[in-house]
Amino acid sequence: MEVLMRTMFQSLGKNHSMNKLAKRYGLRMGAARFVAGDSIESAINTCRELNAAGKVATLDHLGEFVYTKEEAAESTDMCVQTLHAIAHSNVNSNLSLKMTSLGLDISKELCMDNMRKILEVAKMHGIFVRIDMEDYAHCQQSLDIYKELRKDYDNVGIVIQAYLYRTQQDIKDLNQYQANLRLVKGAYKESPEVAFPAKKDVDENLKEIIKMHLENGNYTAVASHDEAMIDYTKELVKKLNIPKDQFEFQMLYGICVDLQDKLIKEGYKVRVYVPYGVDWFGYFMRRLAERPANVWFVLKNFVK
């Protein structure tokens, strides 16, 4: 049943018609729990609240289904506006983005140009930019672009997904760039030809790449709500004598808030991924696919 629900929500998240419908009707069905409003102002206010609670943030202007240069330019402009808003409000936040929203599916050159525009503004304000990893079809392109950008910018990082077979080799390859990585399990539906089908194998691979990246001396963002994975990381950094300024824990806005607060009290750095914008449907569907508990929350909200 859980597998069927996950597949259904992942399919819905890629449905262009459903996405258009969701834009028309705004943040409904409980999505406001996981999305910090549809405007930059609401996102900045959320960052202020997180900062007041001792947490840092990363803002993501949601955007999917970009098919034209004009849409890619609009998405790029929103990223730039978000960077200016972060700087002018003095909130402690990074920027996260998806390169498909910047025109990656149109051309690599267009995406590179838009990435450079964003990174120049981010560099001016001293803000770090994280490239979100998307599905397997975009993995190699994303890594190639990251490596090219890393030659000119030190304020850019990327995400690596533990459910892919290729991941340990990617960690080894990225070591030469002293890459700042967010390490995740992975949220897209992939073929067993490229990804581990079993959760236990994904978990073991995530543990291994956390250890590899920390031992390489590189900054590591462990993005997980799995308390067993968090406890593993705590024990590992003690064993390896890793300083607390070499890693952080990352969690999604609206999920496991009590655990976030607990980590803050224990002296760990916690960064909350804060998505905002009208193009929220695909992101929301992936959150429902990941955690069955989120589905019951939505159903209760819908009944109310």
From TrEMBL:
<protein>
    <recommendedName>
        <fullName>proline dehydrogenase</fullName>
        <ecNumber>1.5.5.2</ecNumber>
    </recommendedName>
</protein>
<feature type="binding site">
    <location>
        <begin position="224"/>
        <end position="225"/>
    </location>
    <ligand>
        <name>FAD</name>
    </ligand>
</feature>
<feature type="binding site">
    <location>
        <position position="199"/>
    </location>
    <ligand>
        <name>FAD</name>
    </ligand>
</feature>
<feature type="binding site">
    <location>
        <position position="286"/>
    </location>
    <ligand>
        <name>substrate</name>
    </ligand>
</feature>
<keyword id="KW-0642">Proline metabolism</keyword>
<feature type="binding site">
    <location>
        <begin position="185"/>
        <end position="187"/>
    </location>
    <ligand>
        <name>FAD</name>
    </ligand>
</feature>
<feature type="binding site">
    <location>
        <position position="133"/>
    </location>
    <ligand>
        <name>FAD</name>
    </ligand>
</feature>
<feature type="binding site">
    <location>
        <position position="287"/>
    </location>
    <ligand>
        <name>substrate</name>
    </ligand>
</feature>
<keyword id="KW-0560">Oxidoreductase</keyword>
<keyword id="KW-0547">Nucleotide-binding</keyword>
<dbReference type="GO" id="GO:0010133">
    <property type="term" value="P:L-proline catabolic process to L-glutamate"/>
</dbReference>
<dbReference type="InterPro" id="IPR029041">
    <property type="entry name" value="FAD-linked_oxidoreductase-like"/>
</dbReference>
<comment type="pathway">
    <text>Amino-acid degradation; L-proline degradation into L-glutamate; L-glutamate from L-proline: step 1/2.</text>
</comment>
<dbReference type="Pfam" id="PF01619">
    <property type="entry name" value="Pro_dh"/>
</dbReference>
<feature type="domain" description="Proline dehydrogenase">
    <location>
        <begin position="44"/>
        <end position="298"/>
    </location>
</feature>
<dbReference type="InterPro" id="IPR008219">
    <property type="entry name" value="PRODH_bac_arc"/>
</dbReference>
<dbReference type="InterPro" id="IPR002872">
    <property type="entry name" value="Proline_DH_dom"/>
</dbReference>
<keyword id="KW-0285">Flavoprotein</keyword>
<feature type="binding site">
    <location>
        <position position="161"/>
    </location>
    <ligand>
        <name>FAD</name>
    </ligand>
</feature>
<dbReference type="InterPro" id="IPR015659">
    <property type="entry name" value="Proline_oxidase"/>
</dbReference>
<dbReference type="GO" id="GO:0000166">
    <property type="term" value="F:nucleotide binding"/>
</dbReference>
<dbReference type="GO" id="GO:0004657">
    <property type="term" value="F:proline dehydrogenase activity"/>
</dbReference>
<feature type="binding site">
    <location>
        <position position="98"/>
    </location>
    <ligand>
        <name>substrate</name>
    </ligand>
</feature>
<keyword id="KW-0274">FAD</keyword>
